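Problem 12. The chain below contains 376 residues. Write out its predicted structure in token notation.
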Amino acid sequence: MSDVLDLTCELIRRRSVTPDDAGCQALLGERLARAGFAVRHLRHGAVDNLWATHGQGGPTLAFLGHTDVVPSGPEAAWRSPPFEPSIRDGRLYGRGAADMKGSVAAMAVALERFVAANPGHPGRVGLLLTSDEEGPDNLDGIRKVMAQFKAEGERIDWCVVGEPSSRARLGDLIRVGRRGSLSGTLTVRGVQGHVAYPEKALNPIHAFAPALAELAAERWDEGNGDFPPTSFQVSNLNAGTGANNVIPGELVALVNFRYCTASRADDLRARAEAILRRHGLDFSLDWNLSGEPFLTPPGGVLRDAVVAVCRELCGTEPEQSTGGGTSDGRFVAPTGAEVVELGPVNATIHKVDECVEVADLERLPMLYQAICARLL
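Solution.
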């Protein structure tokens, strides 16, 4: 097997279900240390983080990835065991093959090759890894590392995130920005009672329904040239005691804004709460801002370099998108770094029988190495 394929298989065999790194970063750190990298293990809480750098001074080009994966689900549903890599019909199967152990392996191999070919390169190259990207809170991973970097005066100028960005073929789509994510837990209080005596109760479901209709119909903004309009969604709604003759006393809804740079989180919070108050609801709403929107604008050095590499090595003109969910890039961009996401096809991520094309996996280090060469 090739170097990158062999390394990806070794990573897949480690059952690193978030936030357990399961030894992935130790393996990568030892390997990069042998290649001359300075390696730091930055553990916060239960989360392993790794920062490996080569070179001195600036500017700094960092590759960002995560070694944790989502659970496999029922292993019997997989054609082959999810944590035992298997190659079939030109594809490598296993949990994390596409999201994102393949990219992590490709980054490590690309960095090894780049410094071997350019031992005295200007600036620095680095690999930054965390093990809680797939978790619900991201409290002790890249969020904590970036706070530590700020305190230490550590700076990243360009950041390539290895998230699986491609749609149908390698390099056909790159992410040049991401929407922000603002979530809320809404509690609407009513009065519990018997369904036969509604005049003695207050049904929070009925009370919330008109407000929900208004929230769902609201035009929060018009978007802009880089982002689609902001969207509001209810992802979960619960009420009731389990009995069909009891009016519930409380309703709990989980809500989310995926918002663009045309809106601000504070304004969205205020407008949503104003709608709820207008409908006379007795409510509380706990907000969680998990990431602000960011954009690496056209003409940015990194964005232009990634587009050129995709054009030359993949034979495609990549779509430059801000769609999709969030990534750990949202914690790096506020420091002033240019951030672009480039990785394999995302068709099977988080699915049973997750896989990556072996040919794509073996080309990915060439793309990452070419980005290093263009920038440094």
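Discussion. The first strand starts at residue 38 and ends at 41. Students who got a different answer should revisit the alignment rule from Section 12.3.
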